[in-house]
Fold this protein.
Amino acid sequence: MSMEITAWNALYNARHAKDDQRPFSRATLRRIGGFAGPHRRALTWFLVLSVLTALLAVATPVLAGRVVNAISDGAEQRVVITIALAIAAIAVAEAGVNLLARWLSARIGEGLILDLRTAVFDHVQRMPIAFFTRTRTGALVSRLNSDVIGAQRAFSDTLSGMLSNLVMLLLTMGVMLSISWQITVLALALLPIFILPARRMGRRLARLSREAANHNAVMSTQMTERFSAPGATLVKLYGRPDEESHEFAVRARRVRDIGIRSAMLQMVFVTTLTLVSALALALVYGLGGFYALRGDLDSGAVVSLALLLTRLYAPLTALASARVEVMSALVSFQRVFEVLDLRPLIEERPDARPVPAGPVSVRFDGVDFGYPAPDKVSLASLEEVATLDARGGEQVLHEVSFTAEPGQLVALVGSSGAGKSTIAQLATRLYDADGGSVEVGGVDVRELTAASLRETVGMVTQDGHLFHETVRANLRLARPEATEDELWDALRRSRLDDLIEALPDGLDTVVGERGYRLSGGERQRLTIARLLLAQPRVVILDEATAHLDATSEAAVQEALAEALAGRTSVVIAHRLSTVRAADQILVVEAGRIAERGTHDELLAAGGRYAELYRTQFETSADDASDEVRPITAEPVA
């Protein structure tokens, strides 16, 4: 390895080191060993090949010196040719060993990345919704990318590099000392000129890199928010384009200036160290030549010393920065383990059983619930804050009890923030109740398998979320094995088949990020089609018609009537006119059920429901004139 390459490597390692001085326990190291376990055999062979590479690298300069001596001594041509062939054989062997070592390195590294990424991905999928509402998506994705790759380097680069460099250093120093201890000592005296600037320059470059990374992160966030459909709309309506552009340009110019300064610092450093290398070689040739002319050293030894010199400085410099590399790798592992150590709040019991066959009921029995405190579901580093918000954990549901019998429609109404959506999330087991029980089919949801609960309970939320994929992919999220006819049947029943047929690519049309290529009503009907395709026995609607105009809402209501037909239903409604036909209406206020009964019973009682109803329809004594038809559990004729 040349001095210039060594200089660049030293700068890279110092520049990318992480500023983290947290202590690392033996437990952390054992966990790292656990991930390395499946790759133990490949690691062993990789280390053996790394040592062999070091041996071959030292052998070539020694043989080169012998060639020079053979020529100087007038040896037979056969001797020179034999040594040359030996050098060629070593070169071929070294190339083969390097290729094999690189293959093993890639196999180990990519395998470790696969293990870590799948472990984190699977773990994150089990986290509660509160985790995702608090976490910055970019910070979480970074754990799956940069930190996982940083951890992988501990095995594929750092570990093997330390061993091979140590072997090469010991062999090189031993050979050089045996040739001339005086020249070796003088060569080592120049080492501080090489190492100390690397550390200082590395720290300066690291600071510049972090500043540039911070600016890039802010610009990335700005672009991500402004380039999304809702963000672009908001900027066009309320934003100040000139100020936005100025703010972005200021940061972009700072990144440019940092890039120029970093490039010059790196070039000055590498040029200086290349000069040091040239001076060291001049010292070897000068002093070695002096000793050779005096007869104290042969000419081949001078050549060997010169070639060995580069093999001495490279491992010394690498080992000097090894601590930085090791600590950086450990920090990456620690950051990955932080995510894996977050305990999922929803755990499936080993003896969990499926939901009983046949029509099912939904029953809440004295349910108390409070959303988990931040320290239970999040990390400050994932929220990109210094400390987690101390608020949270307050009880939001109090002694909630009701039953939706098989085939019944139960409606939840009340003020915003009363706890209606929380009830829906408990029924789908996005969270577990703190007190009391939630039962589906007469069985506590905590005793049911997650797969059977997903098949039994379907939910449509008010935002109608879709992935940036095709219509077909978004539908098959509910049933991957669904046939083409089943897809079109679900679209027909959701009153969306004509629209999809008119699209250029039909079912293969990409709906865009969050489905923004479709209107609000179309997105909602597509989520209802997905629900129809899933064929759940229980349907939960969380204000599925909120934020829609009257025409879109009427179309969605027709689709919902298909979805609710013959199924147990829990409906959270904003428009009270849509739930007049409910078998039971629950008025939720401050986390409690304040009233319950049918539409007529609650109006006659003159309580909170009657007050809400009058507020919505105070301009009309007869709500029959309302354009929106009520949700029913009967099929639409």
